[in-house]
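Course assignment 3, question 2. Fill in each field.
Student: A.L.
Task: Predict the tertiary structure for the chain below.
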Amino acid sequence: MTAKKPAPKSVAKGAVKPKAAKKPPAKKPAPAPKAAPRAAQKAAGKPSKATSPTKAPAKLAPKPAAKAPEKPAPKVKAAPSKEATKKAPPKKKLNVGQKPRTARVDLPLKPQYFTPPARDGEAAAGTASKPTPASKEAKQTFKVNDSVVYPAHGVGRIVGIEKQIIAGITNELFVLDFEQEKLKLKVPTAKAISSGMRALSEDAQVKKAIDILKGRARIKRTMWSRRAQEYEAKINSGDIMAVAEVVRDLYRATDQPEQSYSERQLFEAALDRLAREVAAVRKSDLAKAIAELEASLLQKKAA
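Answer field:
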């Protein structure tokens, strides 16, 4: 069973009816937006009212976009040349009081003096050297075919006097011949005496040298290397007395201890140098002079 709805009560006469609630006013429609200006319509690509609907609106070309400012290309460093890679030579340090030299580029590279080449045996004009006092003295002391003693090579013979042109200057030279060594040596006449070249010793000096051989050996108590240098200097000094001392000190008898190889070589060199001069002074054979010296060595005093 459904419940019945109660019937609406009747309104009494004379009663005021309640006013109905006012409906809110309807909202007015928003006005249509005004047409955009033509320039905006053209930019948007819409047709304006002025244009006819039948004709299609002309498409405007798009404006080119503004180019961005171009960046400068990075500079590429060129490869250094070979000349640039070469290191500059280090600057020389100047000594105290020394001034730096300036390069004179403006001067031409020409020789200040020019001498024409001279022929063999002929001196250039104006370049002949005057004989010096030393040269005159040497030419008066030594003559051709004379036997002389040169410190480094011993007894030799003057074969002749030559003239040579060296750097445009004429020089006189003694030509020495060493028969046993098969050697020829040229010594300037101006430097012959200063170099130690001398004439043969006299007979009295030769006798003194032979007497030295009979004396007692005087050996220093030093290292052999130092004594060897002293002996070699005496042999090359050209002094007959010094050479005789080397022969005396390095001689070994049969009853004495044996010599080393270097001692034996120095002894033979000194004995040969002394025997040559003795043979040249006494005008005898070299073998006879060596036999005489060995006989003197056997007569040495006991130590």
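Instructor remarks: Confidence is low (pLDDT under 50) at residues 48-53, 121-126. The two ends are 178 Å apart (CA to CA).
Grade: pending
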